[in-house]
Amino acid sequence: MRTQLRIVAGSLRGRKLACTVNTNLRPTPQMVREALFSILGDAVPGRPFFDVFAGTGVVGLEALSRGAASVVFVERDFRLSAELERHIAAFGVGAFTRIARADVYRWIERWAPPAEPVAVFLSPPFADYTRRLDEMLTLAGELQTKIHPGSVVVLQSERGVDLSGLPDHVNWEERSYGRNQLYIWVKESEGLADSAEDADEDEAHDADAD
């Protein structure tokens, strides 16, 4: 089924992407996109943005519209990436974008992130949560290790998926939007993490003293 997706805000506001929706391609709904960028806030303008499992690329284009410094789309499906390339050309934003045609689970192995905070959006095919869950969790862990402090990772899944195996699970914030779930993780600077650990140790010491 052919449908149109609309850029919600920013310099490309109102521009539309035509795409074919099927069981293997379910673009992030507008309500969820609006919530996503409300959550990300200042983590988008002026920063590199990575749209991983890009599909139609609507999330990455929305990020670019809202001021992202650049966007890398990672998508292995040739037809989807070709259609995304046409939209990028039509919108005149080719100078700020790059399409990596690759299997995400292999791409992450050789990815060298910028030495600055980035925003990463992950929207794996929902089938991967059953067929490739271990690989997906490893992917999340690789991202967490590689990105610069101050970076944000957002993972989209379907309600009911058990993601208790996510690395550093307790520090992922979870939001629900209908059948969609967003998990948000922020990489703290080492100084902040050390301060938090010191504070916890001080509290434990004071409790022992009492």
Q: Could you characterize the architecture of this molecule?
A:
The chain has 210 residues and is of the alpha/beta class. It has 7 helices and 9 strands; from the N terminus they run ββαβαβαβαβααβββα. It has helices at residues 30-40, 58-65, 78-91, 104-110, 128-131, 133-146, 190-209, and strands at residues 2-6, 16-20, 48-52, 70-74, 97-100, 119-122, 152-158, 173-177, 180-186. A 7-stranded mixed sheet has the order 5-4-3-6-7-9-8, with helices on one face. The chain has a two-stranded antiparallel ribbon with strand order 1-2. The chain is globular. The N and C termini lie far apart (67 Å). Residues 192-197 have low confidence and may be disordered.
For this structure, what is the CATH class?
Answer: Alpha Beta
Total strands: 9
User: What about the largest sheet?
Assistant: 7 strands, mixed
- What is the fourth-level CATH superfamily? Vaccinia Virus protein VP39
CATH topology: the name is Rossmann fold
Overall geometric form? globular
Element-by-element helix/strand order: EEHEHEHEHEHHEEEH
Q: For the largest beta sheet, what order do the strands appear in spatially?
A: 5-4-3-6-7-9-8
Strand content: 15-25%
Helicity range: 25-40%
